[in-house]
Every structure is written in C-alpha cells, then in structure tokens.
UniProtKB/TrEMBL annotation:
It is a multi-pass membrane protein. It is found in: Membrane. Residues 7-90 form the ABC transmembrane type-1 domain. GO terms for biological process: transmembrane transport. GO terms for cellular component: membrane. InterPro entries: MetI-like. It comes from the Eukaryota. Keywords: Membrane, Transmembrane, Transmembrane helix. The chain crosses the membrane at residues 12-30, 36-57, 64-88. This is ABC transmembrane type-1 domain-containing protein.
C-alpha cells in the first residue's frame, strides 16, 4: 500500500512538471491554468484508486481482458483531456 502511495505521488509530481512545461510552451491563460490544476487534482484522487484496482485484478488473476479495458478507458480519458486543452487554447 505504501508503494502505491509513493507511486501516485511520483506520478503527480511528473504530471505537475509536465503541466508547467505545457504552460510555458503554449502560454496558456490563467483560467485554463486553474482548469488544468483542478483536472490534475481530480486525476490525483482517481489515480490511487485505479492503481489499487489494477493491483487487485493482477493479484486475483482475473481475466486479462478487464485490465486491457481499463487501460483503453484510461487512454480515452487522456485523449479527451488533450482535445479539451486544444479546443480551449483555440
């Protein structure tokens, strides 16, 4: 459980650095910055739950198809976030 928490914290710091880089690259407005920070906070709260679910699926040796479905849903969420950023940035 402790390693899942530290992994979530490391991923949060990585996403925060990525956000700062995107802000410098795209010169986004303050409103978009607040929107992205709220989205990052939501992902921070959601990420440990997804990691625990994935860990439980691996430990209980449930069908690999369920893990693939979770990965596809995560990729779709990331793509939607990128599309929203592009639309807002204009």
């Amino acid at each position: 459980m402790d390693s899942v928490t530290s992994l979530g914290r490391d991923l949060f710091l990585y996403l925060l650095l990525l956000l700062v880089f995107l802000l410098l690259l795209l010169r986004l407005s303050l409103l978009l910055l607040l929107l992205l920070l709220l989205l990052l906070l939501f992902l921070l709260l959601l990420l440990p739950l997804l990691l625990l679910l994935l860990l439980l699926l691996i430990i209980s040796n449930i069908n690999i198809i369920i893990i693939i479905i979770i990965a596809i849903i995560t990729i779709i969420i990331i793509i939607i976030i990128i599309i929203i950023i592009i639309i807002i940035n204009g």
